[in-house]
Amino acid sequence: MFTPCVVIPVYNHEHAIGKVLDQVLAHGLPCILVDDGSAPGCAAVLDALAAAHPGRVVLERHAVNQGKGGAVLSGFARAAREGYTHVLQIDADGQHEVADIPRFLERAMAAPDAVIAGCPVYDASVPALRLYARYLTHVWVWINTLSLDIRDSMCGFRLYPLAPVVALMKKRKLGRRMNFDTDMIVRLYWAGVAVENLPTRVRYPLDGISHFRAFHDNVLISRMHAVLFCGMLLRLPVLLGRKWRTR
Q1: Could you tell me if 7 and 34 are in contact, meaning their C-beta atoms sit under 8 angstroms apart?
Q2: Please, what's the b/e burial string for 120-139 (b: 16 or more CB within 10 A of its CB; e: otherwise)?
Q3: E-assigned strands of the chain?
Q4: What pLDDT digit, counting tens, does each position of 105-148 carry?
Q5: What is the C-alpha separation between 99 and 85, in angstroms, rounded?
Q6: Which of 114, 142, 146, 246 could serve as 194's disulfide partner, Cβ 3.0–4.6 Å?
């Protein structure tokens, strides 16, 4: 059974979320918006969007900001309660190519137990510093998985099979801010979940708002890589065995 929904974490993207939501709904998918402690103006926009699409859009709300990861995790929990089997995660700021949703769905139906991970194809709007920082993360992910199976661990446009995600959420505490996407996909890979990489265009961003905190988020990401490296060492025999079997 394949019953997908969309989860969009939202934090003060009131100028972009309406267009993103309209584009998502055009593909016939139900949507869970997660208001991650937004300011009153954005909260009002989200209330209006949910009211305008009864039965198609539900709204989860955090009283205080918990970070992107915290918002996505709340969306996953709501999707599980609603009985969905798969969740397509996409950002609220319009950077992702919503027109690619059918490609994600098609790939997921062909490989329902895999994560379909967006692999960004950037245009000229991407800051050069972001590209260099992402490459450093890619190198650490390749080390921590002993593979090149995950082409991009930071893209927030991906489709998850919900069952292994929920199992992982129950098992351990995951990154709740900008360290979430990498933490989640590496740990799912460790758990034996396959990763299918899907190229998709990415632009920066529709409403000109970024919530990346250069110092704090880089510290969190660095700490995450250190923890994952220790986890890789503990799993070394399993990862090497998997690598040997796939040769």
Answers
A1: yes
A2: beeeeeeeeeeeebbeebbe
A3: 4-10, 31-36, 57-62, 86-89, 115-122, 158-161, 195-202
A4: 999 999 999 999 999 997 766 666 666 667 788 899 999 999 99
A5: 22
A6: 114
CA–CA gap between residue 179 and residue 224 (Å, rounded): 7
Q: How far apart, in whole angstroms, are the C-alpha atoms of residue 27 and residue 208? A: 25
User: pLDDT-derived band of residue 205, with 50, 70 and 90 as boundaries?
Assistant: low
- Pick from 106, 3, 108, 8: nearest CA to 50: 8
Q: Considering the entire predicted model, what is its pTM?
A: 0.89
**Strands of 195-202's sheet in order across:** 57-62, 31-36, 4-10, 86-89, 158-161, 115-122, 195-202
Cβ contact 64:48 at 8 Å: no
For 3-47, how does the pLDDT look when each residue is reduced to its tens digit (9 = 90+)?
Answer: 999 999 999 999 999 999 999 999 999 999 999 999 999 999 999
- Nearest to 97, CA basis, from 139, 162, 158, 42: 158
